[in-house]
């Protein structure tokens, strides 16, 4: 070994219970310079070091950093001496930091994946740490100080009520938890559904305001045509509710008739866990505005069903040479009569031509209200994108917009085994075979999607540990098409999913079981196989003789029958199916036939058998067409026996003049192989 060549210094890091930990170990030389580092998740480290004296430092998440062994700093750390020989250090035990653990679940007893857990210093109220729960709802919060814990999250398609440990509504009321190195468990924390606030927004004259907005705790909802709003998933405790009119016709305020400039004076609305608070109404005063000074562009917004478009965002874009450089130069909203007005286009410097888009603004990704249908953003000229939009000028003119309306599909996803698949979903593919969106099922297995543009779709259903399928109980290529119409629901598009992997078309052996030839297994069709691993076995009786898709038939298999077995491993489950058993393995027959209109005189030769050993039954078919699945369509002509290599098959009906495609189906006896042999013949009459 060359002088001073590096050798490996190895070791392992464990906690007090002997569990391997995640972290890193670095080696420093006498000058304090880091010469090697190894990060690990399994507790094992390897450091390549030259001869010399070193000190090692451990650091890791959730563990107290220390120097080898059990030392607080580099000065007091033990020295590891390297002298040309690899060495393994004794297991190094490190201490976990004090921490708190627990599990977050919903009221159905299901773990909440992705719940947010925040830790605050119990003395000062300062936030110390946060954690997002794993798929099992588990969390670990590290702190050397006593903490108060705040829990929030989403489940079953909605927000859960925020709470503090232990079932407290506010941080001051929360019970402190003292972390320990062994881990202080707070057990199961159950989050109830969030509360809600509902009410009605009108003008001060009592007229319902459509498309006004109410907000509380960062959550908002728009009013429907009756002025009704519903804010869901509201945190527990006191909330400030604000009311505004994005259209700009009415003055914003806080509940209860408090000016928007006086946040401190707003009347608080108290929301309990899962509580529905109603009657939080507002009557807004109209905004005092001056008549427009010159109108450049105006019009009315409607949808294709004739409904007036209230509160739609109207955006005006410039028209640069490079369309990707376009920008918005003016905006407004359609009012409660569906009308919009733009007055400043003639005063936008350097711009004389524009393109205009009407959309639902921030809400364009989904329907406006529950039970409503999505409206499609539309450009000037009632076009679908900037590229094809009509150009407008600043000269006064009227430009109306008609927005396409989506249709909807609804149904349910259940499990053949009873109950509902976990994480059930429905996805849609349009007539161009493009994905057109998807939706998750609700807690009762139902779904309702109202975002599909008019047209034809196929529908796919899926869920965790279940076989996906297409409507109607089909594989992708056999899916039934549904037609979606504007503003209409297509109902009853449902599926019951299976957990079992099954063959919908049986596997089959391809080729003839003749000595010296190769046979194969066609895997058939399965209810799922796109992401599966398909494996093959060849059986003689119950004995596996090969595990490949094809098999060279050897003389050792003479007189035996073969069966193919296919296994489809889909990961969450697997299924098996077997082929029909072949005829007995034999030697390949060769057919010579002299055909007349009424019969076939046949000579059957089989190497290496002598003629007197050649016995078989032969059925003669004519190929008269092709079936839908691509197989030949056969017409039986007759059947006969072959003795000592020869025989005659007499036809039930005479063959006509011309060309014929015949199949001689041989069922051999003894060592004569079985199989189908095709021949073309031409009859002259």
CATH second-level architecture of the largest domain? Sandwich
Give me the CATH superfamily of the largest domain. Answer: Carboxypeptidase-like, regulatory domain
Broad CATH class of the largest domain: Mainly Beta
- Tally of strands: 61
Question: Can you walk me through this structure?
Answer:
The chain has about 675 residues and is mainly beta. It has seven domains: about 5-95, Sandwich (Immunoglobulin-like), CATH 2.60.40.10; about 100-190, Immunoglobulin-like (Sandwich), CATH 2.60.40; about 195-285, Immunoglobulin-like (Sandwich), CATH 2.60.40; about 295-405, Carboxypeptidase-like, regulatory domain (Immunoglobulin-like, Sandwich); about 405-495, Immunoglobulin-like; about 505-580; about 590-685, Immunoglobulin-like (Sandwich), CATH 2.60.40. It has no helices and 61 strands. Strands 2, 3, 5, 6 and 7 form a five-stranded antiparallel sheet that branches. It has a five-stranded antiparallel sheet with strand order 19-18-22-23-24, with no helix packed on it. Strands 29, 30, 32, 33 and 34 form a five-stranded antiparallel sheet that branches. A hairpin with a 5-residue loop joins strand 2 and strand 3 (about 35-40).
């Amino acid at each position: 070994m060359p002088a001073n060549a590096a050798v490996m210094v190895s070791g392992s890091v464990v906690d007090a219970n002997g569990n391997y930990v995640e972290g890193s170990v670095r080696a420093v030389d006498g000058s304090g310079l880091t010469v090697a580092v190894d990060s690990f998740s399994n507790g094992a480290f390897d450091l390549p070091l030259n001869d010399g004296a070193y000190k090692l430092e451990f650091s890791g998440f959730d563990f107290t950093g220390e120097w080898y062994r059990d030392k607080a700093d580099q000065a007091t750390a033990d020295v590891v001496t390297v002298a040309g020989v690899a060495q393994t250090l004794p297991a190094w035990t490190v201490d976990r930091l004090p921490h708190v653990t627990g599990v977050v679940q919903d009221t159905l007893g299901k773990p909440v994946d992705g719940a947010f857990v925040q830790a605050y210093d119990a003395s000062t109220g300062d936030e110390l740490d946060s954690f997002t729960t794993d798929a099992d709802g588990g969390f670990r919060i590290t702190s050397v100080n006593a903490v108060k814990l705040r829990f929030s999250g989403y489940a079953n398609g909605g927000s859960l009520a925020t709470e503090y440990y232990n079932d407290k509504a506010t941080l001051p009321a929360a019970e402190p938890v003292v972390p320990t190195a062994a881990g202080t468990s707070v057990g199961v924390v159950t989050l109830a559904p969030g509360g809600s606030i509902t009410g009605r927004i009108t003008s001060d004259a009592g007229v319902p305001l459509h498309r006004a907005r109410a907000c509380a705790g960062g959550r908002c909802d728009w009013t429907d045509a009756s002025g009704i709003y519903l804010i869901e998933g509201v945190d527990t405790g006191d909330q400030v509710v604000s009311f505004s009119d994005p259209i700009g016709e009415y003055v914003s305020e806080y509940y209860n008739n408090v000016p928007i400039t006086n946040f401190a004076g707003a009347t608080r609305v108290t929301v309990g866990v899962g509580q529905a608070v109603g009657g939080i109404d507002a009557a807004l005063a109209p905004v005092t505005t001056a008549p427009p000074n010159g109108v450049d562009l105006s019009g009315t917004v409607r949808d294709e069903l004739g409904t007036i478009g209230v509160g739609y965002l109207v955006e005006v874009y410039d028209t640069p040479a490079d369309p990707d450089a376009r920008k918005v130069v003016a905006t407004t909203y359609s009012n409660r009569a569906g009308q919009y007005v733009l007055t400043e286009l003639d005063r936008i410097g350097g711009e004389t031509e524009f393109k205009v888009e009407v959309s639902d603004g921030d809400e364009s990704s989904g329907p406006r209200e529950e039970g409503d249908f999505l409206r499609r953003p539309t450009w000037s000229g009632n076009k679908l994108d900037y590229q094809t939009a009509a150009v407008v000028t600043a000269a006064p003119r009227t430009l109306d917009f008609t927005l396409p309306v989506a249709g909807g599909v609804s149904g349910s996803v259940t499990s053949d085994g009873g109950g509902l698949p976990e994480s059930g979903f429905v996805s849609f593919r349009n007539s161009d075979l493009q994905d057109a969106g998807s939706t998750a099922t609700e807690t009762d297995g139902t779904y309702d999607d109202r975002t599909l543009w008019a047209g034809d779709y196929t529908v796919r259903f899926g869920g965790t540990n279940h076989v996906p399928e297409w409507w109607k109980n089909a594989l992708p290529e056999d899916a039934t098409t549904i037609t979606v119409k504007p503003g209409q629901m297509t109902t009853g598009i449902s599926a019951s999913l299976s957990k079992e992997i099954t063959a919908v078309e049986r596997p089959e052996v391809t080729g003839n079981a003749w000595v010296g030839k190769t046979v194969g297994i066609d895997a058939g069709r399965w209810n799922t196989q796109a992401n599966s691993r398909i494996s093959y076995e060849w059986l003689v009786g119950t004995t596996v003789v090969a595990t490949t898709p094809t098999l060279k038939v050897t003389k050792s298999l003479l007189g035996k029958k073969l069966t193919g077995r296919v296994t489809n491993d889909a990961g969450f489950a697997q299924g098996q199916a077997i082929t029909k058993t072949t005829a007995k393995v034999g030697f390949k027959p060769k057919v010579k036939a002299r055909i007349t209109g009424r019969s076939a005189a046949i000579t059957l030769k089989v190497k290496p058998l002598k003629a007197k050993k050649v016995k078989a039954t032969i059925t003669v078919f004519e190929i008269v067409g092709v079936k839908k699945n691509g197989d030949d369509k056969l017409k039986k002509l007759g059947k006969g026996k072959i003795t000592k290599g020869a025989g005659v098959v007499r036809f039930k009906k005479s063959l006509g003049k011309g060309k014929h495609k015949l199949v001689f189906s041989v069922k051999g006896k003894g060592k004569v192989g079985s199989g189908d042999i095709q021949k073309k013949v031409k009859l002259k009459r």
